[in-house]
Amino acid sequence: MAKKNILVIEDNHAILDVITLILESEAFNVDGLNKGSDFIDHVHQLKPDVIIMDIMLPDTDGRVLLKELKDTPTTQHIPVLMISARYNAGNYAIDDVLADDFMAKPFNIDELMDKIYALLKK
Question: What is the C-alpha to C-alpha distance for residues 75 and 105, in angstroms, rounded to an integer?
Fold first, then answer.
């Protein structure tokens, strides 16, 4: 079976590194971005099976990227796990656009993996 591709957009390098190490140890191909610029181009290039995205990025709001992703016919099918230290599952939506799942920071590694495997089954 081919390795699954996961794109992680997280501006905190320590968190990005930890998520990358964990996912690579589970045999995923992982690509990380620390800002939102060129996000859609990157998605088209990588063709990720799941996207993990922080809301608060240095150059944009992750919710704006989520809306762009879900409004684009060629990318709207990609499951997205939003992560945030500031928002929660009940208050992060803008324009009624929701991710496929949400996880508050700090998070548990097992919870992260459970959510990723659940999104891959969609």
Answer: 26
Q: Structure pTM?
A: 0.94
How does DSSP classify residue 3? Answer: P
Residues 6+ apart with CB under 8 A from 102: 81, 82, 83, 84, 88, 89, 92
Q: Could you write out the DSSP letters of every residue in 79-108?
A: -EEEEESS--TTT--BTTB--SEEEESS--
Residue 82: CATH number of its domain: 3.40.50.2300
Residue range 25-38, pLDDT digits in tens:
999 999 999 999 98
Q: Could you report the per-residue pLDDT of 71-112, keeping only the tens digit for each? A: 999 999 999 999 998 877 777 777 788 899 999 999 999 999
The whole-angstrom separation of Cα 103 and Cα 82 is 6
> Mind giving me the DSSP string for 6-26?
EEEE-S-HHHHHHHHHHHHHT
Instruction: Quote the domain boundaries for residue 87.
Output: 5-121
